[in-house]
């Protein structure tokens, strides 16, 4: 692939050999909350499903899906408690690339706007799926609500992409063009982020257009004096 070897899921799985599934569990756990968001989560899950279909990874599909779901859930829980324990100390540098102070404030607004489904949506967005758990913890999101909805996201995300890879694992075109398929998967996973970006711009334009009407000063009523 056009990425470093450690970002190439096919290379990683071959390199890990008999430990491919266990190595994948570790990668998923780290990417889902332990402050290292640049890992091949989506494409690695897809490749695991594909390799299981081809017999390269000799593990029952159901067991792989269960273990990957648990790894994704525990990664998010770890990220949540890292954010909760360290609090705003993670967000002191205004020039930081990811952990900016303004994100603490915006987290509450984010969850208020999208509700619990934000934790499910974030699963499918690289980098965001790591970042949102840290911010949720630092923002003191209700633990019960976090556990329930991050669990729902884990159940949909990890088995969903793994099953997709398994379903397409024996398709000759996918097998011959695995690199292109993995790149396409990464691009598709970025669609929610792009859509939200343009929706946010649209909301900002609408708010800016309405601002003068709301901000217009009230003129005192003349009493004729």
UniProtKB/TrEMBL annotation:
Is the keyword Signal assigned to this protein? Answer: no
- Annotated signal peptide: none
Localization per record: Cell membrane
Q: Which positions, given as ranges, span the membrane?
A: 20-53, 60-82, 120-139, 146-168, 180-199
Q: Which InterPro entries match?
A: DedA-like, VTT_dom
Q: Highest taxon of the source?
A: Bacteria
Keyword annotations of the record: Cell membrane, Membrane, Transmembrane, Transmembrane helix
Main subcellular localisation: membrane
Annotated VTT domain ranges read 39-166
Membrane topology is: Multi-pass membrane protein
Q: Which GO terms describe its cellular component?
A: plasma membrane
Record-stated family: Belongs to the DedA family.
Entry protein name:
DedA family protein
């Amino acid at each position: 692939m056009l990425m470093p070897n450690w970002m190439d899921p096919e290379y990683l799985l071959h390199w890990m050999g008999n430990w491919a599934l266990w190595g994948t569990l570790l990668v998923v756990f780290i990417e889902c909350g332990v402050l290292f968001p640049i890992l091949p989560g989506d494409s690695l899950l897809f490749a695991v499903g594909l390799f299981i279909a081809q017999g390269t990874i000799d593990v029952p599909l159901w067991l792989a899906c269960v273990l990957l779901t648990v790894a994704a859930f525990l990664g998010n829980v770890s990220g949540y408690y890292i954010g909760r324990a360290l609090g705003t100390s993670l967000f002191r540098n205004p020039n930081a690339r990811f952990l900016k102070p303004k994100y603490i404030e915006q987290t509450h607004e984010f969850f208020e706007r999208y509700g619990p489904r934000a934790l499910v949506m974030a699963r499918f967005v690289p980098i965001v799926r790591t970042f949102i758990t840290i911010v949720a913890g630092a923002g003191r999101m209700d633990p019960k609500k976090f556990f329930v909805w991050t669990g729902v996201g884990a159940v949909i995300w990890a088995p969903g992409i793994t099953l997709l890879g398994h379903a397409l694992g024996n398709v000759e075109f996918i097998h011959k063009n695995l690199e292109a398929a993995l790149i396409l998967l990464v691009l598709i996973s970025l669609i929610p982020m792009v859509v939200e970006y343009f929706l946010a711009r649209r909301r900002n334009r609408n708010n800016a257009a309405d601002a003068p009407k709301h901000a217009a000063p009230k003129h005192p009523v003349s009493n004729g004096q």
